[in-house]
Amino acid sequence: MGFFNRLANIWRGFLSLWVSNxxxxxxxxxxxxxxxxRVRKHRxxxxxxxxxxxxxxxxxxELEEAQKELKSVNAQIPIAVQDxxxxxxxxxxxxxxxxxxxxxxxxxxxxxxxxxxxxAKSGLISFQAEIEKxxxxxxxxxxxxxxxxxxxxxxxxxxxxxxxxxxxxxDNVREHIExxxxxxxxxxxxxxENLDAKLARIKxxxxxxxxxxxxxxxxxxxxxxxxxxxxxxxxxxxxxx
Length: 241
Description:
Elements: H1 2-25, H2 27-82, H3 86-160, H4 163-193, H5 195-240
């Protein structure tokens, strides 16, 4: 018998864990179920309160009618006595005593029922406030859950990014850019030192030297011509004299 009891306890434990796991994975459904259960109880409580209020109103009406009838009987008794209607007066007095007892009883009942009705109404209002509070709690808790899940997801994403991998990738990019820069630099350097470049520089210097020689020759010829013309003019002047 003890074995089966332990087995039953283990099964209840597994069942409790299973239910708890479902509840934690579906908090919105749990809140909705709790709210719906409270709404159902609120309807039942409201029905019960309405019964108490109905009884209070009924008792109040009966008390009002009994008081009205007692007032009428009290007014009839002196008239019966004055008219010598002793038998009628006796009946009225007995009725008055019955009505007095009824009024006292109804008054006591009404006081108790009215207190119960007020207490029930207060409880109904408080219960309604609890339902609204639970609805607000549901929205707040679900918002907190969504925010926490978002933060966890972001953190997991950040944790999944390897810092070493980032640094290695950056190093690879830097190295690649530096290699491209080196290729550009070596091309410029080789362009300055290759044979074609040297020949081009020599050709440019040769052309410049040739032009300079031609310019010098032109200047020499022009100077010689000026000197010859000057000598000819001097000779002509001397001959004239």
